[in-house]
Amino acid sequence: MRLEEPTAGDVLFEGHDLAHASTRELFALRRDVQMIFQDPYSSLNPRITIGETVREPLDVHRLGTEAQRRQRVDELLEAVGLSPEAKNRYPHEFSGGQRQRVGVARSLALDPKVIIADEPVSALDVSVQGQVLNLMVRFQRELGLTYLFISHDLSVVEYISDRVAIMYLGRLVEVGSRATIFRRAAHPYTRALMEAVPVADPRRRRRTAPIRGETPSAVNPPPGCAFHPRCPFAVEACRREVPALEPVGGGEEGHAAACIRKDEIQTHH
């Protein structure tokens, strides 16, 4: 989204490189790529009403007439489960879940193709998380939206995702469909994450030991595979080679992992 300027790399969207787009190009592209922010308490301007917040993208991009913009705001508020009368109230008058619904409405105002959702439910109570997630799933289905959904909560990831990418120290270590990542993961870090998910059964025991050690510095990562100091499957080569993200043998198409022992791990564990 270029809220922070990238230091390297490309961000490709429908053939356009967002990382190197001009100001004019970026302005046009942002109609198709919007955001839902993590904290509903700091992502809404406390000095303007809810209606002005939702309407702001329409004003910035000069879409529709005055009357059409007002009508669009009412429609969006109703769509996320808020009364149109809410448009005259301020953010402090709403709960966290209601504020995040406003954030969802604002992200939908321009009919985007992609919404980047940055931990959109982590600041909410668990009961409210489910309501917001169900709302997002409904819009995904009805509007044909694509989400780039960022989360550390694996139960949320499993619920909302079609494809999953796992990152460690800023690098992708595994990519695949939801079913493959949660049932047949090939990277040791992914497997450790799955094992760490709490299960509501006191009789169930861990099949593997928890990840040992502390997360290394992202600024000064270990040589070779960054996970090797904590990995129970590490061999000497892991200390020397930075593994590429490569297809997992015998798995589904599109399943890739950055581990030199990925095929062995998936087959035998």
SSE pattern, N- to C-terminal? EEHEHHHEHEHEEHHEEH
What is the 3D form?
A: globular
Strand order, sheet with most strands: 6-7-9-8
Number of beta strands: 9
Q: What gap, in angstroms, lies between the N and C termini?
A: 39 Å
Which regions have little confidence, pLDDT < 50, spanning 5+ residues?
none
Overall average pLDDT: 92
What fraction of the residues are assigned to beta strands by DSSP? 5-15%
Report helical residue fraction. Answer: 25-40%
Largest sheet: 4 strands, antiparallel
SS field, number of helical segments: 9
Structural class by helix and strand composition: alpha/beta
**For the CA atoms, what is the radius of gyration?**
22 Å
Characterization of this structure:
The protein has helices at residues 23-29, 50-60, 66-79, 96-108, 126-143, 154-160, 178-183, 188-196, 262-268, and strands spanning 12-13, 16-17, 33-36, 114-118, 146-150, 163-168, 171-177, 246-247, 256-257. A 4-stranded antiparallel β-sheet has the order 6-7-9-8. A 3-stranded parallel β-sheet has the order 3-4-5. A two-stranded antiparallel ribbon has the order 1-2. The longest helix has 18 residues, at 126-143. The protein is an alpha/beta fold. Helix 2 (50-60) packs parallel to helix 4, helix 3 (66-79) crosses helix 4 and helix 4 (96-108) packs parallel to helix 5. It contains 9 helices and 9 strands. The mean pLDDT is 92.
